[in-house]
Amino acid sequence: MTDADAVTDEFELVCALDELPKGEPALAIINGVRVAMVLDVEGVVHAVNDTCSHANVSLSEGEVDGCTIECWLHGSRFDLNTGVPTGPPATAPIAVYPVRIKDGDVYVAVPAS
């Protein structure tokens, strides 16, 4: 198997890179899992579980600040690289999913729910 095959075998195609709005979260459903997709201001694509660990709220409806995403309801912030909360009231991390870019397309690996 080549590296190109690994990208398509283990990862799901989500969208074209140019479809992601820079600095704003977008929702994707991958293997039945809600995923918040973020193209940060430095051009890095992040994929995290879309559900805030504090209040079961969609993070893709929140705001991005640098490398964090903020829950719109109570203001919890999560690091987009690690999923670790960087501000209360959340104390539990959210899942972070691997992202690959190939030929201008975004692929994400999310375990089936």
From TrEMBL:
Q: Name one GO molecular function term.
A: metal ion binding
Q: Supply the name of the protein.
A: 3-phenylpropionate/trans-cinnamate dioxygenase ferredoxin subunit
Annotated keywords:
2Fe-2S, Dioxygenase, Iron, Iron-sulfur, Metal-binding, Oxidoreductase
Q: Does the keyword Iron apply?
A: yes
The UniProt record lists the Rieske domain at 12-108
Q: Does the keyword Metal-binding apply?
A: yes
UniProt xrefs under PROSITE patterns:
RIESKE
InterPro entries in alphabetical order: Rieske_2Fe-2S, Rieske_2Fe-2S_sf
User: What organism does this protein naturally occur in?
Assistant: Flexivirga oryzae
- Pfam families in the record, alphabetically? Rieske
At the top level, the lineage of the source is Bacteria
